[in-house]
Amino acid sequence: MAVMLRSAGLWLGLVLLLSSHGAIAERSEDLCGKNFVFAFPPNLHPSSNEFQVVLTSCSSASRTTVNISTPSHDIQYFSTQFISNSESLTVTLPGEIADEREVFFIHGTVLISSDHDITVVAVSGQKRTMASFPIIPTTSLGQEYVVITYVNEVESTGLPAEFAISSLSENTHVTIQLSNDALPSNDWSVQYSADEQVELDLFSYDSVLFRSAEGLTGTQIRSDKPISVVAGSACIFVPNDLLACDHIVEHIPPVNRWGSRYIVPPFMGRQSGYVYRVVAARDETRITYQDKESRTIVIDKGEFIERNIEEDYTSLVTADKPILVAQFAKGNFTDGIGDPAMLIVTPIEQYVSQVAFSTFNVSAHDIENEYLTVITLCDHLDNLRLNGMSLEVSDGSMMRVDVLTDYCVLRRPLWTKGYHKITSVSLATKFTAFQYGFGIRIAYAHPVAFGLKKITCKGYDKRGGEKEQNANHKIQRSPCLPVLIMPLCTHTMAEYPPYPGTSQLPWITQMTS
Is the pLDDT of residue 469 over 60? Predict the structure, then answer.
């Protein structure tokens, strides 16, 4: 079934000026970029939505010009602002941008462009429900995605899982294989079944929304041009039989940016543990999880496993093919703190050497405590600095990963508001970081340090057939063409932290796609 879609064309413009503080050095592929395209899925009560973007400079330039527009919206807005050093900038967007305009469409494809590198964190909030999610630059978007989200199994909640696809170019063809029955937008007269292949033709900056009360994890999306995919739920219970609900959203990375090794730490400030999901991108993916128990499971593309960790315990997930891991904070009724929140876990292969990030006005959403979690090799922990100071604090929490003893997890309160940067005295030090906060029946969480290097890319065998290969091989062990022919896939083993107890990464020779 093919559907032709076109957006209306009025523009919402905003010019913002950012000055840098503590320049971030020359960058690899990560969350910093100059162009961003995404959409906000609806929150619990769309009529009271508040949408914001938090902009942080990654550049040494004294001033950065940022343009924000929504090409399908009918409200004109323009603003110019100047940001001093050590300050972040939060911009509020019209709440109507997530309204459903007609079948398939939502109003608000958001376009952000700048003349120097920035990061963008989107915040969707209202009283007692909010979500935050970093936006992937357009240079790191792709053409293949597998959705990961969560859904309620409580009867009569009426709170669906959802994902939004946004196009970047004219005549973008998208093919969707749904994991469950789903509706486009809120039009109950149109419904697609799980065994139906949906095909859409999108024009520039169209955004389409799908919702399902049965869940959308494992939905497979392919396109002939790069697209943006944002997934979440209007309001979910985690676990699904315990109150209360909260809004979740994350920008899904394309499959070629997925990894195969993930460390999943507990949230500071919570006593009830967490839930995580693992979804596969390829058939016959062999996944090993190690938390309070150790087990290996083989699943196919679009299938997923879910683990409910009820203690303050760090988990390790590994696989022989690309996987994506999402972590969920639990609802308020589990320990009387916070509510559900979702974050995409950074694979070890995508750890970075530096990051700039900003807090935002969480007091407006009744967030009481904010935290920062950093994961790195234990021997490298002393190399890291937060705003020029040691990461460790007297009332922080540092633990070795029990199943991966070369790595340490440092959790600490995030007291200071505004602009922050984590740097290292050694470029060989790689780390990831997560930012999150909890209040009474409300929470947010998102990664702030997430590399976006290509882990797999396309090659061709001697017979001319297309074949995927690992992007880290300098010398191919397969009949694929050498990676050096493809300049976007030239990463080497030396860029990644060593596997525990060895000087190499065994998954590089084992991982296939």
Answer: no
